[in-house]
Specification:
- The protein is an alpha/beta fold.
- 36% of the residues lie in helices and 31% in strands.
- A hairpin with a 4-residue loop joins strand 10 and strand 11.
- The longest helix has 32 residues.
- The chain is globular and about 65 Å long.
- The two termini are 24 Å apart.
- 38% of the residues are buried.
Amino acid sequence: MVSIFFNKVRPIGLDIGSNSVKLIQLAFAGDRIKVAAGEEVHIPRAGNSAESRDQLIIDAIKQIVSKGHFKGREVVSCLSNEQVQIRNFRIDAGDHKEIENNIFKEADAKFGINRDKYDINYIISGNIRQGSELKHEIILFSAARETINSHIDLIEKAGLIPVAIDNIPCALFRCFLRSLRRQEDNEQVSIFVDIGSTFTTLIIARGNELCFVKQIPIGGDMLNARVASKLDITTEEAGLMRNRLMGQENNAGLDDSTRLVIVDAMSSIVEQLTREISLCFKYFTVTFRGNKPEKAYCTGGEAYEKLIIESLNSHLNVEVEQAKPLRGMDISAAVLLEDQRNSYCEWAVPVGLSLKGINLNTYGNLTDERD
């Protein structure tokens, strides 16, 4: 039950990942936020067709919602990294109408993304001097309308009412806007790295403004595949072994030599990921001159991989730590939200989805844009 003091309940945040479905619902009063309910159901992946996977997702959602801990059926969900194209490019500066027209023209000419088949959104992330010319740095988000319609159909079949569809980077960034609003320096630079099963999403922000987004096709699946190859086991078995090393399960059963093989197998993939992130960071520092970041925050299920944290720490020259997206929230009533590792860093995206529609003008002054 939601306390009477937290009587304004947000829509459910729904995150459909590669191997699990997460639902979370927030309630708030003033600047106090409470997790009213939250649950995750894991989905088997091996041998599933698209149709059978969709049915597994629908069944998982119904299973969670049927327990009665969530209030209402309104939901904010997001498309996966595979379903959203994110492009960075520059256009000439101009007035708002001219800018939008130029963005759509460039999207069509450079990437074949046109408004007839795609829904397109964009962020003007900053003004850049290119020689003597002033340019706008653009982050473009696009998704095929057919994909969006299929996503809506899946949600409705699960008995939920879609009120908005988001993308992973924006949901992730929104989750941490509360803490960024408390920063005294609006020029302070923050890095967020969401490491999932198939993709790593990199976000660089200055103050409360999103400046850079990059999708990197490296994640836990590649690590599992490399470990499986080295040990001549299945990827599922490799994942279980890695979970032990990440602290999900007791280390019993893994001798020192096996642990060394696992770490050695992952090293080249981790180095590749670190290199990609480092290149993005260098691009940002050259393009957006100003303060350098002091800290990087890792989210997602793979953020528990210590090898990744250590590698980023040594290469980025900034402090790297696991993010805590539920920090400052009352989670006492969220009996369904179970995590033995306590940081809840894999819940950043669904939290950001549940917060969609909130205007964080100042921390402690949460207003709903729909009111």
